[in-house]
Design a protein that fits this description.
The complex is a heterodimer of chains A (130) and B (66). With 130 residues, chain A is of the alpha/beta class. Chain A has helices spanning 26-36, 79-91, 113-125; strands at 5-7, 10-12, 17-19, 40-47, 68-71. In chain A, strands 3-4-5 form a 3-stranded parallel β-sheet. Chain B is mainly beta. Classes of the chains: A alpha/beta (130), B mainly beta (66).
């Protein structure tokens, strides 16, 4: 029996989706990614820090490696905000996958199920893999 | 010179197009997405999209997260 996972027509050999936040430096991040054998990496979308434009730009540390990129809508408190963030992510051309994260509580980050459903319906209709 | 709100802050820079704004911050080679007055501007359209005083522009990119 194959243990492959198929999502949106994409076949994955690893079921591990790895986040890219909170590593102490890009070297540790890259080593963690290699050790995990994850094929899907998640990340956030944020304003460029205009004082240091290259700071936090995660993809520069992943050049030459192949992954399925899964942007998330962290920071969104409503479906409208999540949809906007998702569209920004898709406009980059890097992926049409999106992880809908809508939370009204900054500390717990518990998801808002109603807004999550609303955003999911809109984004799925726009061709996103949600 | 054009005065506009860039990532939430009012700035006056020497720029006439979206392309100029991106270049002002040295972001031409970066994977950055531009939203001008609430509309996403595709990279192919940066050069042709003029900016005017009072506009709002957001420059976003991908950062570490889960």
């Amino acid at each position: 029996m194959s243990d492959q996972l198929v999502i949106g027509g994409k076949t994955l050999n690893s079921r591990f989706f790895l986040g890219t936040g909170r590593y102490p430096n890009p070297f540790v991040q890259n080593e963690a990614i290699k050790a995990s054998k994850a094929e899907v990496l998640t990340f956030a979308i944020r304003r460029v820090n205009l004082e240091a434009p290259d700071e936090d730009a995660i993809l520069q540390h992943l050049e030459g490696q192949e992954f399925t990129y899964l942007p998330n809508t962290s920071g969104a408190k409503t479906a409208e905000e999540a949809i906007r963030i998702a569209r920004l992510a898709k406009a980059s051309g890097i992926s049409n996958w999106i992880k809908v994260e809508i939370s009204v509580h900054d500390k717990t980050l518990l998801p808002d199920p109603i807004e999550t459903l609303k955003a999911t319906e809109v984004l799925a209709n726009e061709g996103f893999i949600v | 010179m054009t005065t506009l709100k860039i990532n939430g802050e009012e700035k006056t820079i020497d720029a006439r197009t979206v392309s100029d704004v991106v270049a002002h911050y040295g972001l031409e080679k970066n994977l950055v997405v531009v939203e001008l007055d609430g509309q996403i501007i595709e990279r192919n359209d940066w050069e042709a999209t003029a900016i005017e005083n009072g506009m709002t522009i957001e420059l976003v990119h991908f950062v570490g997260g889960g």
